[in-house]
Amino acid sequence: MTGRLIHLLRFDGYFSTMAWVLAALLFINRLSSMVKLFMALYLRQELGFAIETVGWLLAAYGGGLLIGSMLGGLLSDHIRTARLTATLFFVSAWVLLGLGLVTQMWLLAGLLLLSGTIDGAIRTLHQRLIMEYCEVAQRPRAQALSRIARNLGMAAAGIAGGVLAQTDFRWVFFISAALTLVALLWFVRTTWRRTVLIPEETPEAKTGSGLPYRDKPFLWLLAATVLLGMAFDTVYSTLGNYLRDYYRLSTEAIGWQFAINAVLVVALQIPISHWGERWGSRRPLIAGCVLLALGLGMLPLGSGLFYACLSTVVWTLGEALFMPPLNVLVMQHAQRGKSGQYFGLFFMAWSASALLSPVLSGQLYGQFGGHSVWVASAVLAVMSVPLVCLATRLRVSTSQPVQTRKATSLS
């Protein structure tokens, strides 16, 4: 048992060296996201903007995420991924500094739009970096490790940002900018000169037909992503208010729900992903959709802190099951054609669902009550299952593993 644990945690054991490197990059990058966690409070409390203005300013960031998700993918088909990533980190540091110094509304809106665009592009490029620097068999493991790094980074960002904000809100921006520069230095030091794995040419790539718009299984996967994303995003947009209004939970108890989610992801993501390797991408993805539907759909049927925690455990297990294989499936499509366009469209679909979900859940909450939100979320998660089946049926029966080979450094 001890030997297995040592092998798991060894730098080049169960996970490849580049899986650790890219996970560390993501952890540092998520630490700098403390700005996003405290932006609404900063705009309202420190700068004194009306709540309606705060909403529009944050919408600018959301719009930037949508733009950057596709733009990053498109640019990565023409600009070397390593060079583009380093450039975005450098620009991001200056944008974060600007956000801490500028107080005019329109300048803030422009900077938030630019910040969202950069963050959306970096999120897309991280997936491409996994594809370019990790062997095919290592990619699901790299996805699992990256999810742990993301959750740990967000948890640390919340704690650090809270301490800094109590001293002076502007320190949140300045430290975030410094951490972004640390991420840049780490990336250049560890990745800049590494050789890139590139797939052998497939018939689709040779004929120019490897485009996402002509890839029907991928389009079905995008449709499933939108529904799944809309169901999952209600956790962040609605769960807190619902637990306060219907379960009468305190703010502290509500916070524990999100803490349970983060702890479970960190503790269980690797074992769950390791188990999923035996079954491919399809079965864990479908199981994750079903558990998400159960975890959210059970909320109107009970009450109390224990029941809320039980719901959180169920939907978190669903999240841990469907997230990594969803990204792996996108990579399997992307490596056969215009990979930047594939990644861009996928993250655009996920960002679009994150924009649509708060609006729709808010309307349902106001018109029909909070219970209706979770019924609708469960229905959306269940509706994604047949779309996943359509997206994976052809891939399972016809796809062959894409071979990779070393290329000279593209950076």
UniProtKB/TrEMBL annotation:
Subcellular location: Cell membrane
Pfam families: MFS_1
Keyword Cell membrane on entry: yes
Gene3D superfamilies: MFS general substrate transporter like domains
InterPro entries linked to this entry: MFS (IPR011701), MFS_dom (IPR020846), MFS_trans_sf (IPR036259), MFS_Transporters (IPR050171)
Keyword list, A-Z: Cell membrane, Membrane, Transmembrane, Transmembrane helix, Transport
Protein name as annotated: MFS transporter
Keyword match Transport: yes
GO CC aspect terms: plasma membrane
Primary subcellular site in the record, as a coarse category: membrane
Membrane topology: Multi-pass membrane protein
Domain of life where this protein originates: Bacteria
Native species: Pseudomonas kribbensis
Ranges for domain Major facilitator superfamily (MFS) profile: 18-395
Chain segments annotated as transmembrane: 20-43, 55-76, 88-114, 171-188, 218-239, 254-273, 285-307, 313-330, 342-361, 373-396
GO molecular function annotations of the record: transmembrane transporter activity
